[in-house]
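Explain this record to help learners:
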Amino acid sequence: MPDISRRRALTAGAALVTAGAAAALVAPAASAAGHDHGGDPSTQDTFDEVYKGRRIQGGPSSGGGHHHEHGGGYAVFVDGVQLHLMRNADGSWISIISHYAPVPTPRAAARAAVDELQGAPLLPFPAN
């Protein structure tokens, strides 16, 4: 078996790193394809439903003049009051009500908030 040269070892290492980086870039897109949110929040379908007696609505938003948009251009309302949403780097969503329980979609965040509120009204969140 021939001895491997330093150049061949470095070339093989670079090839492995490149392949790993390409796989890391493709994996989030592939996993997002399995969810009903479709990746980009601006392309999501709107929803308007009654969940456990509470009306939840969601759809793309224009941002409302905020300096920074945590909800990724998507607005959710519970009984007409906006639920403050934030999108995590991994594509999951959290709300001001269920901050430590990430969910895959804004609809799931609205449902989780209704569950957590247990019938209490959602109070408006003062955004700066």
The two ends are 67 Å apart (CA to CA). The beta strands are 47-51, 54-60, 74-78, 81-83, 85-87, 93-95. DSSP finds two helices and six strands in the chain. Residues 49 and 56 are 6 Å apart (CA to CA).
